[in-house]
Amino acid sequence: MVIGLISFYIIVAGAAPAYAMHIMEGYLPGSWAIFWWVVTIPFLALGWRSLTSITKTNPELKLLLALAGAFAFVLSALKLPSVTGSSSHPTGTGLGAVLFGPLAMCVLGTLVLLFQALLLAHGGLTTLGANAFSLAIAGPFAAYGIYHLTKRLTGKERIAIFLSAALADIFTYLITSVQLALAFPAPVGGFMASLVKFAGIFAVTQVPLAISEGLLTVLVWNWLQSYTPEELELLKLIKRKPQSNESV
């Protein structure tokens, strides 16, 4: 059922050709491209340590790590044209951030962006630092924080999963808008005018996409609970009820 829903999502969201939302190759001024690389690299180093620790301590989680990366790759490769000629897409990073933490997702998300830049011409190598900061760093950290805060306040697992995926998606686009506004301030109104403009471009399509991503992530979470409870228990995300021993 989950595979069918993802396939339907791909057909609907990918029906029309469009340019990818990732900041394209050569679009940012050189100084800003270097700045975002400098900001991103420390997170990648910490993320690599996190991934190494996870795989060494619990090698049985490698398949789940691959699933989180594949989920992010498929969703972030989808493109939905916006009314302004730009495009929006889901991010898919919320699930991995909840499962393995935001640092691990920094590396997985950056690898996703690298493959998309090389294989699908989405984004670019010079702008990889900026794209990684918005999608692979800011989004996962937002998802992780939203998940744990919602879980603590409501105690509702599925609500926490939905909000973490949906709001992290929106937060990723807000950070991208900030990056573009910093690089290209408006002649009149400066940074704030550009921020409103760039954020408004993506808002029309990104809000429904974020809601859709949240719902899809909940469905995948339900599937994981049904078919990989041992791994989720190992990650301390669920606690299975002990089976009662029937007296003979």
From TrEMBL:
Membrane topology qualifier? Multi-pass membrane protein
GO biological process terms on file: cobalamin biosynthetic process
Q: What is its main location?
A: membrane
Q: Which GO terms describe its cellular component?
A: ATP-binding cassette (ABC) transporter complex
**TM stretches of this protein:** 30-51, 63-80, 100-121, 128-147, 159-186, 198-224
Pathway entry: Cofactor biosynthesis; adenosylcobalamin biosynthesis
Q: Which UniProt keywords apply?
A: Cell membrane, Cobalamin biosynthesis, Cobalt, Cobalt transport, Ion transport, Membrane, Transmembrane, Transmembrane helix, Transport
Annotated Gene Ontology MF terms?
cobalt ion transmembrane transporter activity
- Could you name the domain of life of the organism this protein comes from? Bacteria
Where in or outside the cell is it found? Cell inner membrane; Cell membrane
Report the family membership.
Belongs to the CbiM family.
Q: What does the subunit comment say?
A: Forms an energy-coupling factor (ECF) transporter complex composed of an ATP-binding protein (A component, CbiO), a transmembrane protein (T component, CbiQ) and 2 possible substrate-capture proteins (S components, CbiM and CbiN) of unknown stoichimetry.
Q: What does this protein do?
A: Part of the energy-coupling factor (ECF) transporter complex CbiMNOQ involved in cobalt import.
**This protein is called what?**
Cobalt transport protein CbiM
Provide the gene name from the record: cbiM
